[in-house]
């Protein structure tokens, strides 16, 4: 007999998926079958939609399962670290994002490879950046499916298996990404972003007043019985100063260099929209982590011997809140996973199409054919990710750990393209390649640092080597051509000096507000 919990969970998640598919279908109806529309939503997303698609894409299954598991094992230190890296991300969106938008609007850039290959006059660098992003981003899609499979299995008490839950999640995401591209993704993310924020805050509030008499009693009890969980370096001694600082820096930079976030830079209606999103999006993301920290810490006291740490938050919800309510919040967890996976499926498809298929096909291929190719890639990429996810290979965790670290290696050469007249092609190629190699070698244990080195995360060492090599080689060989500098940095200086960012004529009204 089907349990009440399973029935409520299936009904809630089913209604949620139906609503999301309907919104995705509407995005397809108003869209156009061309590259700019499918990949960048016609570069017309307004503040509201862009805010929530940025925030929802920034989150992932980690926001519901991973952070709860990390808090359960290592304490609340991840919350302060998340505030640090979210502030870094907000600054990057404000400062770097607006300049990327200016260049994208002027020259039609969509992917990071478009901009970097053009400025450094190096198709090889563009291909290397694109390949790195594909390799480091693709496994992260599989982790979203793993998260959704766990959610389905937990919420239905095994009625829906891990494999079936992941498949349902994949099918829904593939359908609306195929149909509407970034516009459908952004519109569904707007709903998912509101839904999961509200669900988590209500859940956190419900928990502290049902299990305790409020936040003060909860905190008093926790600090008395589990003091190590509310101080650094945490009960397992993991969150050392070196780890804390390097993890925050690499995550804050790395997320903003991933392709699904980079596409948000060029899809905005104007740089001013991006700056509003940087301010409000950062606040949204910081506030989101408050209730997840409470729920994760609640599991420490309620379930001291929990076998699967990632199930900490669902376990607390189903223990201390009504079944119907816990199921609604679990649907919010599905939203967290789906809003990242759909963006990543779309982004990887855009990278392969824009950076590899279009140059190979040549100028004779029309935009409709290019867009169709990108659409066809979506279910193919989804199927490959699903096969990886249901195997639950151990190396997925390692690849996920270096997703942000690998993407962050773009940051020095992107800053060079936007700001530094002395940036060179040779420096960019050497620095980026060395940064990726050092990060991968350290993360996968191919190289071990001597004991005297600080305990920074692997990507931080990679970023240091990257920056030093980039600057050193560039100083030795000289910068890119004057034409490249004028086309990029000269145009940014001109646009900013003319106050183009605030010109009303550049901000026509759109329906994506």
Automatic annotation (TrEMBL):
Q: According to its UniProt record, where is this protein located?
A: Cell membrane
Its Gene Ontology cellular component terms are: plasma membrane
Gene Ontology process terms (BP): sodium ion transport
Which Pfam families does the record cross-reference, listed alphabetically?
SSF (PF00474)
Q: Which organism is it from?
A: Halomarina halobia
What is the protein's major site of localization?
A: membrane
Which molecular function terms from Gene Ontology are attached? symporter activity
Top-rank taxon of the source lineage equals Archaea
InterPro entries listed in its UniProt record: Na/Glc_symporter_sf, Na/solute_symporter, Sodium:Solute_Symporter
Put simply, this protein is called Sodium:solute symporter family protein
Q: Which family does it belong to?
A: Belongs to the sodium:solute symporter (SSF) (TC 2.A.21) family.
Q: Which UniProt keywords apply?
A: Cell membrane, Ion transport, Membrane, Sodium, Sodium transport, Symport, Transmembrane, Transmembrane helix, Transport
Q: How does it sit in the membrane?
A: Multi-pass membrane protein
- From the record, give the transmembrane residue ranges: 6-25, 45-72, 84-103, 124-142, 162-182, 194-212, 243-266, 273-297, 317-337, 370-389, 395-420, 432-453, 459-480
